[in-house]
Each structure stands twice: as C-alpha cells, then as structure tokens.
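Re-running the complex after MR caught last week's input typo. The corrected sequence lines follow. Everything else is unchanged.
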Amino acid sequence: MKRVLIIDDASTIRLYKRCILEKHGYLVEEAVNGMEGLEKALESHFDLYIVDINMPKLDGYGFLQRIRAEDIDQPPAMMVSTESAAQDKEIAYQSGANLYLVKPAKPAELLTFVRLLMGDHHS
Amino acid sequence: MNPLLQQFLAEGRDQLQQMSESLLALERGEQSSEHINELFRLMHTLKGASSLFTFPEMTSVLHIAEDLLTAIRERPAALGRDLTDLLLECLDFTSLLLDEINQHDQPLAHGEQSGQLCQRLQQQLQSWNTKVGQNAPLQTQEQTAQPVPTQQPATTATSRATKQAAEHSDQSSLADHRILQSIPEALRQQILIESLHEPELNYIVYRPQAQCYFSGEDPFFLARQTPSCIWGTASGSSQDLANLDPYDCQLVFHVLSRASDIELQQHFQYVVEQIDVAPIDARQLIFLSSQADDQPLSQETLDGLHSLYVSRNVSGLRQRLIDILGQIKTQTTTASALRWLQCAANHAPDSPVMEQTWQLLTRHSQYQPTQPGTIQHNDVNDEMMQRGMQEVLATQRHILELDHNTPWAKGRLKAAANSLANIMDATGQSEQKHHLRQLLDESLQDFNTRSMISWIDNLLDHPVAADQEQTAATRRAPITSQQAQQPSSPSTVSSPAPIAQGSGRQRTNPPAQPTTPAQAQVAASRSEHNVAAEHSGRARMADNNEPELTPRSDNSPRYLKVDQEKIDRLMGLIGEMIVARNRLPFLAARIERMEGGRGDPVLRELSRDIKEQHSLINRIAEEMQDTIMQIRMMPFSSISMRFPRLVRDISNRLGKQVRLEMEGEETEADKNIIEILAEPLIHIVRNSLDHGLETPEQRLRAGKPAEGQLLIRASQEVDRVLIEVNDDGLGMDPDVLREKAVEKGLIDSATAVRLSRQECLNLILLPGFSTADTVTDLSGRGVGMDAVRRAIDKVNGGITISSVPGKGTRIQIRLPMSIAATRVMMIETDGQLMGIPMDQVQETVRIPQSAIHQVRQQQTTVLREQILPLVALNDLLQLPISTRLNEDNEYAVLVIRNGSEPLGLLVDNFRGSTEVIQKPLGGLLAGVTAYTGAALIGDGSVVMILNLRALL
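Corrected-run output:
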C-alpha cells in the first residue's frame, strides 16, 4: 500500500484528508507541523506529501525546501492552502511543491491529483 | 455526530482558547510579533477548517477577523483595548456557535449579531488602514461625507473636506451618483430590501441659506429630524477657501427618507424653498463598491454560478455564494458584486433586481458562459484524470523552468521527475518512464532541463489559441533568466504550452465543462453533502467514490466521550462493591467464632482462604476505584483558564491595573468538585477585584506599585486540594467587620466583643453580610460569601480567610479530591459507632485525665507545647453521659481541624478508619444537621457520619 504523509496543523483538515485517502486504500501518516513532518519524512519512505502552508515551528515552504535538499528519493508534494494568491503558488513551486490546490479541495479533486501524483489509475 | 464535525469542535475550542491567551498576552505587551503571528495562524486555521462545513456566519466573521489580523500583522502597532475587545467578541461569538453546533449539529441563526460584528470588524479594518496611513480608506477622498444618522456633528472641517463633492452635486441632477456612492454598501442593500415592500423613497437636497445661523435656525438638527430618515450626509457648498466666511452656512444636506412628499414639505415648511424633493428608485442604489485591487473569479466558478442562476436554483445559488464569499477577500469589487447577487437571491429572487445584480457580476467579470459539454460526475472519471494530467504536466513543466540556484534544486528536479513518472503510470503510459529516467539523469548533471521540457511539450495537447498570449506572457520572465545561462532550444519559446499557474480561467483547454443547469445542480448538492457528510448514506457511498468519513478503528481518536451518568453509575457500583468487600473479614471472623472453628483444620483453611480472597479483591477493588476516580479527574486549568479573561474584563471596567498569576493549574480533582468550585471562585476573584484591590492612584498613595497582584494557586495537600486566592489589596479590618455585623444585627454586641480576630474575618461568611458600601454590578449581587461557603460545605470542603489590613487578603479553600468514597474514622461514644470524615482528623492521641485543665469555662490540655481546647462529643450531641476513660485513666482524643485552629474531641474510643459510601439522610431525618449522612459498614450495620462543622 502506498503511503501518504499529511502535514497540517489543523486536526480537522487532517481527519478530512485521512478519511478520503483511507477510503481509497492509502496508508496515511500525520504530522502537525513542518518540523515533525521533516522527522517523519526522513525516517521512512512516503509516496506523497500533502502539505499545508501556515504551520507553527516550520511552515510548509520551509518543510519543502529542507526535504528537497535532502538526499532521498524525492516523492511528489502537493500543497494545499486557503490562499489563492498567485505569489503563494509561485513560492510553493519554487520551494519544491509539485502541485498547488486551493482548499477546501473537493474529495474528487483531491483524489484525482493524489492518484496522478502517485501513479495510480482510477479504475 | 459526524466525527469530522466533532474533531472540528474540539480543535476549534482549543484554538479559541489559545487565541484569547495570545490576545491577552499582546495586550500585556509581550513580544508582539510572536503572538500576532500565532494569533493570525490560529485564526487562519480555524477559518480554513470552518469552510469545510457550511457555517456561513462563522466563516464570514472569522474571514473578516483574519483580514483585520493580516492588516495588523503587516503594519504592527499597539493593539488598543477596543480592538482587543472586538476580537475577543469574535472569539466569544464563534465559541457560542460551536456550542450550538455541539447541541444542534448546526449553529442557530444570528443574522443581526454576526452582521453587526462583521460591520464593526470592517470599520476597524478601515480605521486601522487609515491610522497606519498606507492603504487609502474605502471611500474615495472626495466623498468623505459624514452620514447624518451617526452622532458626529457636521463640523466645518467635514464640510471643507467635502466641498468638492458638493460642487459636483450642486451642478448635476438631484440624486447625484457620487453622493449615493458614499452610502455604505450594506445600507444600500438594506434599503433595497426594504423597498421591495415599501417603495416610497425620496431623495431630499436641503441647501440652507448662508445667513441661516443668524436667524436662529439649526439646519443640521432640522436635517437630522427628517421624518423616516434612512440615511443622510452633509457636504460643503463653497469652494473658495480664501473668501470663505466662517459665519456663513456652507452646508448642503442630502437625505434619503421614506416619508411622503407631503410629510417632507410639512417638516421643512419654514425652509420649503431651500429643499428639493424627488422620488428615487431603490434600484439606483445597486452598484459596485469600487476597490483598488480585485480577485477575479475563475471561469469554472462563474460557470457554476451561471448554471445555478439559469436553472433558478435559488437555494443552491445562495449556498454557493456563501462558499465563494468565504474564500475571497471582502474588500474586492468581485466580492461586492457577489454580495449584491446574494442580496437579490436572498430577498428578491423573482424580481428584476435579480437580473440586474446578475448583470452587475457578469459585466464586472466579463463573463461569457462556457458552452455546455459532457456530464461531470463528482467521481473521479477519465475526463477529470485527463484534465488533471494536463494541469500536473504543465505545472511540472513550469517547475523545470525555475531558476536552479537553490540548495534544494536537485531534490526539486527529482520530485518533478517522480511526479511525471507517476503520471505516466496513472494514465497508462508506463512505457514512457524509461525514457524519462534517462532524461532526468542527463538533466541532473548540468541542470539543463530543456530535453525534459520538450518531452512534456510532446505529451501536452495542442493549446487553445486564446491561451497562448496569456501563457507566453506569464512564462516570459523565467525563460529569459534561463536563456542567459544556456541559449538552446528556441522552439520551446515559440510553442508555448498552457501553464496551470494562474487562475482557473487559464486552463480552458479541457474539452468539457459542467453543464446543463440541472446537472450542475445535482453535482453541487452532492458535493455539499459530501463535505458536511454524515455517514448515514451508506447506500449512496457504495455506488460512488465519495469518501466515507469514518475513521478506521486502528486510527480512531484516543479519546472517548462518555456520558457522565455512566461514570457516576460505575462509581456507585464500585462503592457497593467496597461495602461488599468489607463484609469478607466479618465472614472469616464468624467462621473462626463457630464452634470448634479454630480447632477444625477445614474451617481454619476456609477462613484463611476467605481472608486471602479478601486481600485479592481488596487490591483489585482499590485499583478499580483509583482508575474510576482518575477518569473523573479534571485539571484545575479547566476552570482557571477563564480567569485571565475575567480579570482583564473586570479590572478594565473598574479602571484598575491587575496582574494575575496562576500556579498549579495541572492540579487535579474530581469533576464534581472542580465544577462546584467554579462559581465560588469567580465570586471570590470578583470580590478581590472589586473590594480588595485599589485603583492605581490609591495604591500609589499607599506606597504600593500601581499594578495590583492577584495570585490564584492550586495545590495538592495529601488527600485534599487547596485553592488559594491572594491579593495585595486593602485587606479587611476585623474591627470594621465586627461593627458591620452588629450594625446589621447578625450578632449582638456582647458576642461581638468576645470574637477573636479570626472569628471576625469569618463573619463575612454569614448570610446577609456585605461590606461594600455601594452595590456594584460586579460583586454584591445578593450572593455573598455565604453562598460560597454553602457551595464548599456541600462537598465537605473548608474555607479559611486571612487578611492583614492594608496588605491584602488570602482566601484558602480546601476540598476533598473526590466526593464519591469517603474515608472515615470510626469512633465510639455512648456505646454507638459513628464516623468522622478522615480529612477533618489531624491525629488521635490519648490524654491522661490529669493533663486536662479547666481554663475559664473551657477544658484544655497542652499538646506538644500548644494549648489544645477540648470538647466532649457527648456534650456536642447533648448526651447526658460523661466521656469514658480507659483502664489507664486516659481519654481518647481526636484532634480535628476546626477552621485553622485545632480542637480536641473527647470520645469513648477509636475504632480505626474505613472507607464508606455516604448516603444523604432523607425523609424525616433530612433536617438533622448533626450528621452529613449515613453509611453501611462491613458487618451490615449503619453508622452515622458526624457533621462536625454543624456541631461546633
């Protein structure tokens, strides 16, 4: 089973995504800030990171920049945030995100991109 | 309740609490940037989570609050009390909604309250921006007209500032558009709504004569008194500052009124030639509030709205508008257009107003409906995958074009390649992966991503012509920087591919859009369900791909929410079990007492077995009891966390400066105890703030620091919880208290003289005692300290007051940690067994008769060089029997705590301690105050538990 790391400080959002992903057979691990995300990401392999932007300790951009600087098998990362401003998106790509979604992402939308980024066909 | 919602409630409450702490810290002036960032982050997170559900009022309040915090964060300055109050109010409002959601699964409607709150936040936002002087205020400069209905007088300054506007209005038609523009949008909408039922609407222009002040006229008053006035403004009429005569009236008044022409003529009858009245259509008020920058809606969003609009799906439209408005900035023109549409959809869906507001939006957004195409499911389907693929490919292409001068560029490149490889898997083109790997390896060597980009371009569909210009423009910047590094592959520049970085409108190349209205409606309503999902619709879940929002068991939350009654029941059961357990030693003893019991090996063994079982059951029962008690334990912080806010609010209101310190918030006690403590503590804290602590001036005069100190401390004392409230305020003078008590007839003067200092302080616990000369709205609402004492007595606690005049007061409350099982000391008196709660017993001693002395009327003895007054229990119970001595002529003395003074209680004998479950006395016995209750002990007999407090 493929593993997803959800990094978000809002437990409600984590639960929301966890439910969607687990329903479709993904294993989900959670981290409550970028720092914890970094620890978990370096500890074991994940197939996708789903990262929030605003978080205490280390924000989403910081997490991406630091994980992309590591010598690991870089999995795709999806950034999800309420900000829809173009410059936020650009910073996300600069920092190493592979996709930027504006939340609340609809389950079908989230799932589409999760599958694409993890290489799973929907049928 | 749906687990997602539950999570939201729990998290939301936490966040509100943290936000209020940050706010208070900010107000105290602690490292502001850290707290403001924290505050902003929490507000942002909470708003984000709230938008998963449909709580429009909550989301809109939080949204504006977040905007306000953004403004504050960007241009920090000291948060005033007003602003803090307002933000706290937002938190309170949100908290109220959370409570309602908890009860009803949905918040109740608070239209007026939330609207008002939003409006005030908006005002603060504007004034903040103005204050810091960077962003221009919402109204354009030439129209800073003052609305008449507010309290502000139309000063000369105002008229000067607005004279330009007046110039224009004087020359143009009666209802000048520029004047109308100064009516706030919300008010215009309200007028529009009201006009649906009450079409009469008149626009009045009143130009008082320049000399009117000399004839005793008050034009401002007259204008303000316009009958049925809805709105008004005053502007200046003269432009020439140099020749301005300050004694002339320069004002022109513009008023909107619902009064009829006749009524208006009557009102202005003495100046009738100075006014112009013309009816105005409320629809003239429908226009956008123009703002500097805007946030355009995507084609998709507009298509969604369009299909709802054409299908006349008003409820769907309303819902969608709430959603969209929750996501975009409130001050944008687009938001203004959406609000007008919302106003029409909510109040006049069938009138021409609806059409007018729709056009307002489409014209502003330059919207052309997308041609209806194929059906869009809410599931993931091939088409969505196809579209998603295009977007992800384009995004990776964009990423590959980024500047590679960062330490993480290599990782980013690998991640993009991994994403691309996965897309190949997902779309059934796995054979491409091998080639891709080769390209990646090449690229990693010199960061030349050209070959990978061309590879993506081959995969991408031919872009739609309309997109080309736009995408080329957005891409130009990164490309030029790269061309400087390696000027290869000009073909890429000339054949641009769509890039999914801008708004959704840029990705119009996918072949299909939602949409016949009916289909869009279905899709929208399904997705709503989806987001606020209950997992009731299992049948529905089975045949589509919507997530089932039930967490899997191995990952379910570690907390369990249990009805308190169930735990109480468990507590009752364990109590009964303890009583049953206590019966076992009696059984063993009975066997031993049986004829030949001691000699009979079988019986002896049986007795030993029973004792063994007893100790086993004993261990299990104790552990069980401990565990259940643990379940019921709550930290002191669960009530103390409200104190910072309480102290702040009250001290602000009283104009006092108070620093609150709290200690031992982690101290735990039984839920019932903690809950019972809450009210009395608030009362004590209020008293301290109101009567104890002085105003800064008084304090400075008394040589104390201006800031008063209030310390609330919780700690554990063996089996009791000690709560202390200390203040360094006025303190209480025992003599004053004594006089008061006599004055109020609570005690007679003879008794008063005999009272010790400590006893005088205790007078405040008497019903009907209040030292405050004036009754304020804070304390002294008729619930005095006697109510506090009653509450504490009820759980068998004690209260101790100590005070030094001029220095401060300390109130200590001691409470048992649990109220379920009580440990009692069994004593014997007059041949009866009785129990005394252990927490009142300090020690047991035996005192020889010879060591007892008569001092005045009081028997006393000396215990460890301290005088110990003695009282016979028999006397207290009015039993006409003297206390028995043992063989060595000693009395059994129980040293008990009586307030802070120890007291010796003479009894016949001690019988050890045991745990009992107290039952209150009922029926006829309910009025007997000498006992707190009765309990069943091991041998099945009933013992009475003494209420020493009532007896002494």
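None of the earlier attempt is carried over here. Residues 133-173, 371-378, 462-557, 773-782 of chain B have pLDDT under 50 and may be disordered. Residues 100 and 524 of chain B are 26 Å apart (CA to CA).
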